[in-house]
Amino acid sequence: MPELPEVETTRRGIEPWLHGAKVTSLSVHNRQLRWPVPDDIQELVGQRVSGVSRRAKYLLIHSPPGNAIVHLGMSGSLRVLEHDEPLRKHDHVEMTLNNGCTLRYHDPRRFGCWLWQPQDQSVHPRLAALGPEPFDDAFSATRLYERSRGIKSPIKSFIMNNATVVGVGNIYASESLFRAGVRPGRAAGSLTRPQCEAVHACVVEVLQAAIQQGGTTLRDFVNSDGEPGYFAQSLAVYGRAGEDCSQCGEPIQTRTIAQRSTFWCRRCQR
Known about the structure:
By secondary structure, this protein is an alpha+beta fold. The chain is built from 6 helices and 10 strands; from the N terminus they run H-E-E-E-E-E-E-E-E-H-H-H-H-H-E-E. It has helices spanning 4-18, 125-128, 141-148, 155-160, 170-180, 193-212, and strands spanning 23-28, 51-55, 58-63, 66-71, 77-82, 91-97, 101-106, 113-118, 253-257, 260-264. A 4-stranded antiparallel sheet has the order 1-6-7-5, covered by helices on one side.
């Protein structure tokens, strides 16, 4: 599924086209996404988009009466197209703008969402329990170390928990722990302070690198231009079970942690 770098790549792709444009119509071709698309999403019509931001893996399309909250789910994508571009199967929502463009939401599996947050509602319930952003000062090595004390669950599960830090999905958790030299199955509470510092630094580095390279190519992900991301070319362990480790030559291992495929090198990660 699209992870934080893919969502941020999408935000950067659509924001220049949406910012300052007026929404002339909003067509919902299929309301039955992860949650039904609410009728009050139509409050966007006639409004100018004041910006597009990201919170965790959610995109927020801002307007004076409120914000549309968009999640790409497992297979969703947003593309900016010309008005007369033919509708495709699984194009569920489209927002037409007065600048000649249409923002179209495509989602074959329909696990994503379009929700509405009125301006007088400070925090939407879907956003209320989210932890710090990985690039904010609130996410620090000290916080990671202190919150992990006494935690027996694997460090991979711990950094994928949105209460710890948002946006670290399965791919980037494996990649970050490889760079940090920490085995993903280790109990979070067993990590030393220097190891927590390494994990923190590598989470930030990996996510930043993935954003710069346009996200990771998965079978379902395309960015706002319809092109896949390129960070997959830089993946060190994810999806490489049985292949030689780029650092030591040891075969990459795989196992399931918290129902997710996990990849690591048993020589480089302790």
